[in-house]
Sequence to fold (1296 residues):
Amino acid sequence: MPHDAEPPKKQPSELERNALGKGGHAEGKRLVPKTGGVRAQLTDDVKYLQSNQEMAELHNFVVDGKYAGDVFPPKQNHGEEINFQDGNPNYINVADPSQSSGLTEAQRDKMFTLYGANTLTPPKQDPEWLKFLRQFTGFFSLLLLAGGLLCMIAFAVDPAGRENLFLGIVLFIVVTITSVFTYQQEAASAKMMEKFKALGECKSRVLIDGSLQEIDSNCLVPGDIINIKLGDKIPCDCRVLQSLGDFAVVEASLTGEPNAIKKVNKVSENPDEPALRQKNIVMNGTEINVGEAWCMAVATGDQSVMGRNYRMMLQAKEMKEDSPIRKEIDRFVEIVSAIAIFLGVLFFIILCATLGLSVNAIVFTIGIIVANVPEGLLATVTVSLALTAARMKDVMVLVKNLEAVETLGSTSVICSDKTGTLTMNKMTAVKAYVEGKLLKTHPMEGADWGQEMPEGVIYQELLKCATFCGSARFKAPEDQRGGGGVVAMPWEKMPWAEREHVEGDASERAILIFNEQRLAAFSNNGVTGVKGDERDPSATTDSFLPVDIDTMQKCLHPKKNHPDKVWSLSEVREHSSRVAAARMAYKTVHKLPFNSKNKWMAVTTDMRRLAHDENHPSEEKFVTWIKGGSDVVFDFCTHTITNGQVEELSHADKAGFAEANAELASHGLRVFAFAKVTYESLDHLKEGEEINDVDSFFGESMFKPDDWQAGELNEEGKAMEPGKPKPITVMGRPQIPIVRPDIAAQRIEKNGGSAYFVPKIVFLGLLALQDPPRPAVPHAVAICRQASIGVVMVTGDQPQTAAAIARDIGIITKAGKTEDDVITQKLLSEPGMTRADFKDNRERILNSLKAEEKESITAMAVEGTRIATWNPKAMDGNWKRALDFTWKQGLVFARTSPTQKLLIVQHFKIKEVDGGPEKIVAVTGDGVNDAQAVTAADIGICMGIAGMDVTKEAADMILMNDNFASIVDGVLEGRLVFDNLKKSIAYTLSSNIPEIAPFVSFILAGLPLPLSTVLILCIDLGTDMVPAISLAYETPEKDIMKRKPRSASDNLVTTRLISFSYFQIGIVQAVAGFYTYFAVMYCEGYAPEHLPNHGQIKGYFMPGGPPFGGFSVSENLRSLATAQTAFFVSIVVVQWADLLICKTRRLSLFHQGMQNDQLNFGLFFETSLAAFLTYMPGVSAVFGLQKLKFVYWLPALPFTCLIFMYDEIRKWIIRHHDDVMDFFRHQKEQGLLKAEYDEEKFWEGVPQTDKIGEAPNDADWTLKEKEEYTQLCADLERSATLLERVARWVDEYTYW
Fold:
């Protein structure tokens, strides 16, 4: 079967289906290799025997016992050979692999049994029931379950106290609901991951029993003969049998190297080289850059290089520490548990000492312990993380682990890839150099050269050259997806920049789009022979490269799914490719493709049809168009076009080129030069005349092979050995007529006068390409800087390219100066020096830099080769100096390897005690080479579009649109999670003091118990629950992304928060409760001074106890129940203010507003629930409550106002003292605020500020005004000292 035929699709065999099962993985047939623990670098020591075998020997396949199953006896597995030619003599056709028969079905079944499916064995998955039960084992869940168990014990001890039974059940319900909710969220993320994996599934074309069939790639086995071509994903590690079309692959996903590597069918010259470096081995997961190949599968699934690294990544992931929020919650639970148990035991001892051991003492102790546990916090944590995960999905971020959201909010360093994350991963023409002028060509930069062509012949010739000198073309019309795979868009409506291309690399694609956009800008879309939707032979265009409508039609394939429907003429004119039509209309006579040796390509085109063009007639008949590296192409140019005329290159032209080329290169742009060669000797040929000898002319008379031929002499007249490559003295380009005239003359003379044609080689200009930054990235980076988050670029690109992009997006600030910037500045200050002299003088100037010049370096672009010399394990001076630039003007790591990227992450995380920065690090990655760094980071982020499955497995979250700006959205959400949890804790803990204080007074002062344990639980599990959860819905404060990342000491629960909740707000609430309690008791007839020593400890206010205050026991109990109800209600009332002040940590409530509908409902809910428990018949009796007069709700209101006003003043001081301090700090630094000062110096330093009133210039002020202003500053300085102390105290003890 021809290898380009469409193969039939094959269904998996029964053996394959059984082995794959539902999950697509072989069960129990593969032994995972032992890697000897987690390693810090990519597995690069794998070797394949097949790389050292000739094709005729490949039929002998050696079975590796480490991976084989049970087919061979264990002791005979290793080294056992399978001869694929047994009964299959044409297994590999050495002469033409496409005519091979491949494996038979029986052989494939045997290999499948040995090696299993071609999939990566996922980590061992726990059954769903176990995942569900694990949600109940969190430290917090266990604490609440213990509380519920204690309530059950209390009910068992005292069955009359049914409220303990109810509250125990409520605790169990709370834990169950939150556990179910968390499980559902994580299950949803797991399902989304499976969808991602499904998107990555692909088909492979395999020769089976002599027939080319299309099968699922996960059914491949070692020994399969596979056909792979551009657009395919290489499905396993393979040995190349035949390479077609300059076959090359990009191994960036494994090695980080972005350059294409040519692969050939040649036995390895160095058998000791690992598979990664073999020219005849292609790896699973790598991408085809160009061409096609026939290959033999040598390793599949876990046995491939990717599979081995995948296992290492899983081991590293198992060793990963808990997330920061998990540590914080566990720490908080430990603190709360310690406090609860301590208080419970303390009160139990006191009760036993005063009343003796009793059932009441046990029940009382259990109540104390349960009362100190914030039961609503678990639900708050779960809701906060789940809400955030949902919001993250809206900004195209998939959160695999809910706790990872908060980790991202804690991030202080983001190490980001460049390509596809910070940039659009779409190479674009951004600048041009034509006729001595630099032009911008990209709309994002404010293009000088937009859609329309600037006037001048040279511009036209440059675009002609760029059109013909390229191989990239757009895909045929089909329904494609635009916008990163999000919005479906019909092909004909897609802009050129969004359409997919085939052949050629990203640079070719960029030039293709550049040409297409500009050729379409001419009248009638650059097409002749059509007007509107009708043919019109007289219709013309002002395009200098016109194409007719018939040619345009030939370039447009039938509509997808509608082959019977043709495109209308207007659709053809608008949607067909003008570049493809031009290449078809103007015949290509000869083509020399680009190769890495020459660094240029040349296309010779028949241009005779332009002789009849009315708008742009041309007498040129044949033109060779040349495109290539700027230095290389310009080096052999002899002329250029000036004012429409071809003239020899002048010194000024050469100097201008050198300066422009150096300027473009210094910005990290990829620069291409364009030139043309005309053949005057062929100008007598007219269009339509046959050129019988054209192939001979272009193939023999003008082109010479690039190896020396027998009898050929070099420029010195010496005979050269045939087959050896020609030297650089002929510029390494002897195969086309582009040689220096003097060398050509020498060769003509020495070769007996052979006619070598030496043309005019006309330089047309330069196009500079760049992968432009994503539009949202500069703003996102600016937000990160504002939030004191260091953004570090880690890329495999050249330092100049990386630094240029980093400067464009703000990673390196505009004021930042790298080492190269300082050297360039000094170079240009030297007479006669230009940017073109940078390379030759760099080291000299670097060594001559003075100390102050070195200090002016405020940004850094570090190359990977330098990292290799630094300490890989400890924080040495090189690491410290480099990482410090993160928080100066910018840091970039360029040309880094995967191992170096891992080292960067590890050094950012070195603890402060060991001399490191101890930062929380987020890392982005997409390839297998990134998996180690992604796993080592605190938060690993994988690209959803470009990311490999291995890296997605290692990551904590996935960017579904590969956009860096989404990470910043995630940082905000993460900070919001931490903020809202702190707010919820602050709100919840503040009620602990008014809950515990009644017991203290009960024991120490002998008061009748102001608040029962049942009412405490009504608060914790009732009125406080919904308001505490509602804080999870709070929107971010306006300054949330202006704060620094939280430090290691900024825990979820700090001494500041304890001080605020317990000793500030909590004390006020306790006072409010006691005030209400005593007021109600007074109204009920009990003077406050008579209550001490008349509580339950003394036997009063208990059934069967003595009466008190002239009332009966039943009246005593009713009055006490009324006072306890009022105390309970007072806590609800003051919690109104507590909930409002906990909406923000720093901003005023008037700034934040009341847009949180859930919180507004929480206020209503806690009030309604308190009223329901108080006034609902039957319910109030269960909880020991009495109906209250409305007036009993009012005593706590003044305390509510006090709490609110106190907090607003506190926040005002925290917000404003920085501004005042900044002014005086500036004055002190200038030496202006002293007892004695230089008046002239003072007035020079008077700030132009609106913080304390504008200070006009000296000339506008009278002497009296100067004296008054001086006195004002002195008074303010004295006031500032006091204000500074107050503000520092407020910040130190109240800002939580």
